[in-house]
Structure formats: C-alpha cells, structure tokens
Amino acid sequence: MKVGRPSVAWIAFCAEVCWFVGIAGEVGGAEPLAFNYVIMATGTETVTSTPLINFTYTVTGTATETWTEKVVENVTITAGPSGRGGTQEKFFVPAKTDTARVTAAGDESPPWGVALELEGRALFSASRPRSVMIDVFEGKSYRIIASGNGSISVRYPGQVTEERTAERKAMHSAPASVSAKEGEKYLGAAPFAAYPRSQQAGSMGDSTFQISDDNERVETRVDGANLYARTAFVELISQRWQKQESGKGTVGTADGSKSITLSTLAAPNADTRWSVENDNPNVETWMDGNRLFAKVVQIVPPNYHSADYQDPRSEIDDSEMNRVLAYWRAGAYHIDSQGLDGFRRRARCNQRSTPQRGFPRTVLGH
C-alpha cells in the first residue's frame, strides 16, 4: 500500500496532541518540578569600634639650679674685757685694700691699752678712747690686743660667698592620638624643650617630668623621661548584616503550597528579614518567617505557534516545517537542550515528554 504525503493539518493535529499530552503530564503532577533556591537573610549586627582619640599633651620638666653669689657686708672684730683679747683674725675684703674703722674704748682708771697689729707690726695703739680709719689688706693676718679694761673693735667691709638654689621649669605641648586597640602607646621621650634651662649660669640638677592632657578619655603617664598614653574608649556600632544559603527542592501541582525547608540564618540582633529566589519560572517561592514555601504556577501557552521556534515569528518557514515532519516520520521525539527547538527525534512516540525549564515549547501549539 502506497503512503501519500501527509497534510499540514494532520501534522499540526499530531503535534497539538503531543503538546497537550505533555502539558497534562506536567500540570497533572506526574513529574514534580525541580528548582534551585537561594534564601537571603538581612538584618543588623553590633560591632565594637576602637576609634583614634585625638588629644594634646603637655610635659612639664622641673630641675634645681645651684649657683654661688658674693655678698658684701660689714664685718666687726672685737677684743676686750670679755676675754677675747689677743684673738687673731684674717680679714677678707673685696679689694686689695680697703678702709677699716678702728675704735678704742676703756675706763680712765685703772690704765688700759689696745693695739692692732699686722704681721707683728703695730698699725694702731691707744690707751684712751679714740676712733681712726686705717687701710687693711685682703688676705693678711691681723692681731688685735686689749689689756686692762680696754676694748678694741675693727669694722671693715667684708665679702661673703653664699650658695643659692632655685627651681626651674620648662613646658612643651604636642598633639597625639591613641586607640584602645593599641593598648598603652609609647609617645616618645620628653623633648629637649621640656628640659629647664639655667638662669644664673649655675649647675642644673636632674630633671623630673610630669605629663597632662586635655581629653578625659585619655590617660597619660611618665616613666622617667618616657611618655605613655592609653584609652579604654570603644564605640558600639550597629551595621548591616546579610547572609545567604542555597538548596534544591521539588514541588508538584498536587502539593499546593508546599513547605520546603526552614532557614537556619538569623541576624545577630534578632531583626532578621528573609527573602528567596528560585530558577524555575513555573515555580513560585516565598518566605513565611524563616520557612520556605513553594507551589507550581499555571503554565501559560506561548502566544505563537509551537512550531514557530525561530525568527521571524508568526511565520513557519521550510526549515521549521521540515523539523516537524522529521518528528512525525520518526514516530516520536524527546527533550534535547542541544536541539534547535529544544527537542530531538526518537523511535517511540507513545511516551510523554515534559519540556525542560528554560526552553520554549516547540511542539506545535497555539
């Protein structure tokens, strides 16, 4: 029996039947739809921040200066009835020579006498009251003598050397910064500007230092000449937190709204918000709290003929018609992602096909 060329209407009818069979198998839930999902969780977390604290420190150095000063003052040497007669003194005068006032005193009766000697030579002697001016020499040894009730006094300008001390201070200020993360921070040694200076050309003792700062959040200290600073200040900052987890799931039409999984993601501050995405356009997913649900959505037929798998649309060309005829001649087809229309011929035609997600249906349909 000779088989004639099939009509286009017959081909279209066979294709439509196969397409509706495929739809029925998918929507009817014979094969659940697989999908991959990604759950996103967002919220906030509190972190500890250790910011730099700026401050200005001031170093104060203290030292003692010691120097000598020569003071000129009058010196009086006496000898007389008190028993100090015959004492010998060394006169210190500010110049090579100076003038001393020598005074002799005593009762007229009984007789008395006084004398001033320089290296055995009498410079002055008296047995009655009198007062004279006599040149004296620096560094020379003088002897005063009093007898009876007489007394003698020598008054001259002397030179006295005194040791003096005074406290000297110096200050130096500089900016710095420190954070709690750094612990105790070494600021350096006391700068030269903080060492006190001599004001009397004397000798300076060891310097001691003190440090202060202008920020109550900072603690400064000094160890010898070494300067240190530290702070315990920290800030608690709330910042955005987000994580995601992925997985696989299946759902069929008969499942309705199906619980897929519980998310284990939770924001540290207990303010988690969950959302979800999936890669199957025929599956709808959503979050109720941290629980993921899924359901099959209604499959909408394409708005162009299923045999019209390539541009231009609304026009079935020879290659598209020949591909449909090839399926018809083979007696069956199956899904093949490498095919031009997502399908390929096979020997059997009584097995239902469910088109893969992500590829257009290319079996003839409306």
Give the helix tally. 2
Number of strands: 21
| Poorly predicted segments | 15-30, 351-366
Rg calc: 60 Å
Strand content: over 45%
Question: What fold name goes in the CATH topology slot of one domain?
Answer: Jelly Rolls
Q: Termini distance? A: 34 Å
CATH class of one domain, named Mainly Beta
Give the secondary structure arrangement, pairings included.
Blueprint: H1 8-27, E1 33-49, E2 53-79, E3 88-90, E4 97-105, E5 113-118, E6 121-126, E7 130-137, E8 141-147, E9 151-178, E10 185-189, E11 203-204, E12 208-213, E13 218-223, E14 226-231, E15 235-251, E16 258-262, E17 273-278, E18 283-288, E19 291-296, H2 318-330, E20 332-335, E21 343-346
Antiparallel strand pairs: 1-15, 1-17, 2-9, 2-11, 2-12, 3-8, 4-7, 4-9, 5-6, 5-8, 10-14, 13-14, 16-19, 18-19, 20-21
Describe what this molecule looks like in 3D:
This protein has helices at residues 8-27, 318-330; strands at residues 33-49, 53-79, 88-90, 97-105, 113-118, 121-126, 130-137, 141-147, 151-178, 185-189, 203-204, 208-213, 218-223, 226-231, 235-251, 258-262, 273-278, 283-288, 291-296, 332-335, 343-346. The chain is mainly beta and 366 residues long. Among the domains are: 33-47 and 237-296, no CATH class; 53-65 and 164-231, no CATH class; 67-162, Sandwich (Jelly Rolls), CATH 2.60.120. Mean pLDDT is 82; it is low at 15-30 and 351-366.
